[in-house]
Design brief:
Number of helices: 3
Number of domains: 1
Distance between the termini: 38 Å
Order of helices and strands: HEEEHHE
Largest sheet: 4 strands, antiparallel
Structural class: alpha+beta
Radius of gyration: 13 Å
Shape: globular
Oligomer: single chain
Helix content: 25-40%
Length: 86
Amino acid sequence: MMAARSARAVETGDVALRKFVEIGGGRIGYAMTEAALSEVSGGAKWNPDASFSVADALLADPEFASVLKVVLRDGHVMVSAIKTEK
């Protein structure tokens, strides 16, 4: 219940946790603003994921709470893109 309450608190108000996908680089970034993310290289660009929901992410994977904690503490977190096996 605490995680759901925290998710609502983050999603309401002026600031919200957002998910960004690095187009051309493949990384995923979570931050309150794009400016908090590291710079991209090689012509890559950060693209916000408009379909992202903190609540949905927490419901799908309760371990996402650890990502949320890092963003609230440090302002952002970067994760590698998921590689699929062929």
